[in-house]
Amino acid sequence: MPLRPIRSANCLHQKLLGLGLGVLIIADVVLGMAQGWPLMLLGVALWGIHMGMTQGLLATMVADTAPAALPWHGIWFLQFDEWCCDAGFKRPGRAAVG
Question: Rounded to two decimals, what is the model's pTM?
Answer without folding.
Answer: 0.64
